[in-house]
Target: Phytase-like domain-containing protein
Amino acid sequence: MSRRAAAVLAVTTAACVTAAPAFADSHHGRPSARAAVQLYTESVKPLGNVGGVTIDGAGYGSSFALKPGSRDVFYGLTDRGPNVDGPDGVKVEPLPDFTPAIGEFRLRNGKATLVRTIPLRASDGTPYNGLTSLAGNTGETIVDLDGKELPASPYGYDPEGLAVMRDGSFWVSDEYGPFITHFSRDGRAIERLSPFDGSLPTELSEREPNKGMEGLTVTPDGKTLVGIMQAGLNAPDGPKSKNVSAVRIVTIDIRTRRTAEYIYLLHSDDKPSTAVSEISALNDHQFLVDERDGEMEPNANKKLYRIDLRGATDVGKFSTVRNSRYDAVGGGLLVSGHTIEGIVGKDATAAATNDLGAVGIKPVRSSLFLDVAGLVTSIDPTGGFFGHDKIEGVAVVDGGKRVVISNDSDFGIDGLSNDTAPYRLKVKTLPNGTQDTGELLSVDLAKVPARFKR
Model:
């Protein structure tokens, strides 16, 4: 079977996902964490086997969202496809023809079934791929397993955030531009918002490679898209992205296309050790933000924060901050000549809050909603229960009374076992030694012990 055929087979094969039972025991009279959760493990046909390493097919966890009007139908999203870090900073893609896709899942009677897949395509029907984009090149070099460089493509797309509309269409954010693309219900591109034509804030193009618009959601009334960057921007007067605690949130009025920007501060006492992987709407002004490290359980750092845009300062091109002006090619809003990233520098959360306050900027308010890592580690201190490193999708059910969390399994591969081509893949393993795969964790917030929330 060709690599292309294997990829197509994997995204068109129905999957059955069986729920592991939740336990209702208690610990010293306290509510049990196990009673609050239900685990679903995906069983999707592999994309293929390369050199004895299975490339897992359950890769729909980059984002996860509930179908409007439903309680049991969800949509998951792949990223650009299987890829690993190679020597000298290159990325290695074992299946260059992989087409990113949306997967529709039905959760019912203790099982979740992958009902259909929706490959993402250009308006003319040409399938998208995971190669670097000609329109928003990140500067990355991608090679195949033989070490051959793969050129940038007009159809390159790295999807990360998913918003599901009532008419059956989808909005998807990516890491390359970053772009936000509107897709029809069958996956054809309808339109694209871009920082290169002004339909998205121009300064977003200063994203760190592979850290673009990681999360996207739509308010329940269907009027506003809300996206969030994975990390800080590389502003002209600021430190490197990895040292910046200020992360941009962008709102887009779907009817008028008017945008606004707000600042979310990563939670840290020192330099940032976490990044953002998802934003999910609770209502028209409150959202959940998934902030996480990149470590496996036990005792990792993965938390959901409730944020509120009310009272936060718009730092976009329509900002009214004193002594400010908007410079699209100079880093966005400049306050007394400095970008947001230049103002906060390398400061941690508390100091960055003070930095912004001193120039009249209020970041979004945030409070702990759920300590995901603490919850799952309390269930299994060895990291054997939902111990994944990348918690990336958060579907909101019943206004936040329940959340369904997905992981990005990286298709079960993690790096190379050699430094020269032809390359050999390494298996990505969980703490219990098994290959990483996609799972879903349903959490009933009413049953979560108080120590893991608010």
Notes: The chain has one domain: 3-452. The first strand starts at residue 15 and ends at 20. Residues 1-29 have pLDDT under 50 and may be disordered. Helices lie at 3-11, 340-344, 349-358, 372-379.
